[in-house]
Amino acid sequence: MLxxxxxxxxxxxxxxxxxxxAMAKEAPGALWFGTENFVPADIIDARAQxxxxxxxxxxxxxxxxxxxxxxxxxxxYVGKPLPLIFQGKEIAAPLIVEPITSGxxxxxxxxxxxEARQMALDISGKPPLADSLEDE
Length: 136
What we know:
The protein has 136 residues and is α+β, with helices and mostly antiparallel strands. 37% of the residues lie in helices and 25% in strands.
């Protein structure tokens, strides 16, 4: 009887933890790279930018501690796809060719410029940094 109770307790805890992670991945602005969650405090800058081929990309620059987490994660995934989840939806699963150690990464997708701007704002919690001191 005690074993059954302990087993049910452990399973309930596992279910609650799984549900909690799933809800966290769907939260407004939630950005997950594989198993790592990046919150606005981890983001120096997030911005939409046009690409030469007419598509729109997001350019995200991380704070140093978050950059180190991303580097460690991408070292484990070299040669494998790593899902990028934004608000509960997989928006990309790039094949990791080499660890991302620069602290910056770009996400290309089929977003409009306005969608990408809103995503950048949701991810970072703030407008993009000025391009130059003259823009401030």
